[in-house]
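Minutes, project check-in
Item: structure for the 296-residue chain
Input as provided by the requester:
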Amino acid sequence: MKHADALLAKWQASSAWLPSGRLHLQQGPIDLVIRAEGSETETQAAYRQAAESFDEILPGLIRDLKRLRAPLTGKENSAWSSPTAERMHRACRPHAALWITPMAAVAGAVADTILAAMREGRRLERAYVNNGGDIAFHIGEGRSFKVGLVTSLQSPGVGGRTEIPHESPVRGVATSGFDGRSLSRGIADAVTVLARDAATADAAATMIANAVDADHPAILRRPAEELQADSDLGRSPVTVAVGKLPAKVIEAALNSGAATAEGMLRGNLIEGANLALRNRRVTLQNAKGKVVTRWN
């Protein structure tokens, strides 16, 4: 508990209003941009509820931090200290046969938790919680939500857009890849996933980005713990640099990631994915009788 208290003392929470009526909440590694749309009474109440819920996010995660950094076995039965930790575990559990820790879904799970708090008892037309690019959102009837696609985390910029209508089951989007906020075992410039919630999208994007991979002398890797001493990846090698790659290596890496994404689509874990590597893109989507999300 002393370690937890020290972290909380070090990471003081802050809040500020941004242009266009957005709310910014930040504490330690958590950095949220929040927007609610609807009547003034409903939106102001939603913002208050978001701020109140935010106060409990980091303490809850710190209480479970040791377990959240441990690889899943698929047999975990113990209760978690917070709804955010539960969301992380639930999102990562389908991937337990592969190597994964609940930390793979932390950004998306935080966004989901805050969005759920905002919507509690409220009538909102639309809302979103953006946690560093991993976004949970609410779409009211007759509305839609547009998301810019990042095709390179090394030089972020909008490389395309997707529009999600109310009728779509998608309510979360996440992006992962080499040289992003989190360490990656793959070489993807960016993998963006659409799913029913942000935590699920976050875990899936992590796993698909790991699968966009190849062996080549231009790819440099180092143990994760050498880059981040407290990384949940331990001594697992992660990508630190990617040089010039032959076209056939790029194609093989994208095909590997696409195969992983297709498996998730067949298992109804995700609704769509956009994989990018060296100006090449692969887009996959679940259209089994469901509303098709528009990519461009």
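Outcome recorded: The two ends are 49 Å apart (CA to CA).
No further action items on this chain.
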